[in-house]
Amino acid sequence: MTTSHAQSQIRAPSQSNVYLTLVTIHTTPPTRMVNNNVNVVSRGNTFTAMPLSVELSPDDGDTMPSARVIFDNITLEAIDWVRALTTPIEITIETIFSGEFDVVEQSISNLLINKITYDQFSITAVLSADDDLNQALPSDRYTALQWPGLY
Questions:
Q1: Is 84 helix (H, G, I), strand (E, B) or coil?
Q2: How far apart are CA 62 and CA 149, in angstroms?
Q3: Mean of the pLDDT values across residues 71-78?
């Protein structure tokens, strides 16, 4: 949900501030990037300038939250990093205005990288929320072999 300030800035006929997207990949140490041509310091953290774009799922109440993050102009080190991934990694996506770097207008957290594709030009990460509603609870199945006293 965007703030009322963000909504008024978006609807304004003209403005000098632009919307910036901050992406934090929760590794050790965290990797922070911004879709800008200069680095940005927000809340004491430096976000490295990188050409990236974010595509969000529709906010219709029926669709599970998901997103795609596309990183352009990648390096061989980034491809090696992707190939070394063995577990899902959490990502946080935030939006700010360029004039107010410490005010987060919108934040989407607890997204996990589910799928990554890449070519010589870009890396595309498909993200989704942890789908707790479709997990088996309890994780055991009540079978005659495991629970003979029930049968």
A1: helix
A2: 41
A3: 83
Output the six-digit token pair for 7: 């909504």
Q: Where are the domains of the chain?
A: 4-150
Side chain identity at 55, as an amino acid letter?
E
CA-based max dimension of the chain: 72
* Block residue for tokens 């992707």: 82
Q: How many residues does the chain have?
A: 151
Nearest 5°: CA angle at 122, between 98 and 113? 80
What φ, ψ does residue 83 adopt, rounded to 5°?
A: -65, -25
In whole angstroms, what is the distance from residue 74 CA to residue 71 CA? 7
pLDDT tens digits for 16-51? 778 899 999 998 889 899 999 999 999 999 999 999
DSSP assignment of 123-144 equals EEEEEEE--GGGS-SSSS---T
Handedness of CA 92, 119, 76, 51 (dihedral sign): negative
Strand partners, 24: 32, 92
What CATH topology corresponds to 4-150?
Pnp Oxidase; Chain A (2.30.110)
